[in-house]
Amino acid sequence: MKQPKVIETIPYKIASSIGTWIGDQRLSGYITSIKYEDIDINDFKVGDIILNRTNWTFTSALIPGYWSHAAIYVGDGKVVEALSDGVVCHSVYNCLGHCDSYCILRPVIDLSNDENFINAIISHIGKLYDFFFKFSKNGIMSCTEVVYVCYSPYPLGIKLNHKGMLYPDDIYYNEFFECIKEIRK
User: Fold this and answer.
1) What is the bridge-based pairing of β-strands 78-83 and 140-141?
2) Which residues neighbour 16 within 8 Å (Cβ) at sequence distance 6 or greater?
3) Which domains does the chain possess?
4) What is the pLDDT of residues 89-122, one digit of tens each?
């Protein structure tokens, strides 16, 4: 995949360094509340949005609302999410095994067999992280930007807020998604 020119700029390199450092910092110890036994793979369905929060992190302090991260479940125990390393596909246990709270949101429209939807999610794997949170079509994406791009073609009310962004809490309070499971510790 050809990388966008924005990554060659000094502002992106600075934002990447600072953003990665911020994302890796905890304000307190590294003990998290969610354990692998709290995660039941049978709770998930392709197309579910997973929101999570890790207490005592800079990202949880800086992102408005309770939830601080979003991922999309793609089946076989895997999620697609944007992290400081870029858009990746890995285990749901990796996504949730280091957090303190999570919820599973299921869209009211069943997208689990929609090949266009699934292909759209997978097509973003390998893109770089959007440390600017600009929600533009420049080839870099934040976690909620992946959600926005993949779900906005469907009548599910996924739209940018008054700041031109989509926060995880905007998704949580969306009437077109049902909360299937929520654990707050």
Assistant:
1) unpaired
2) 7, 84, 129, 131
3) 5-184 (3.90.1720.10)
4) 999 999 998 888 999 999 999 999 999 999 999 9
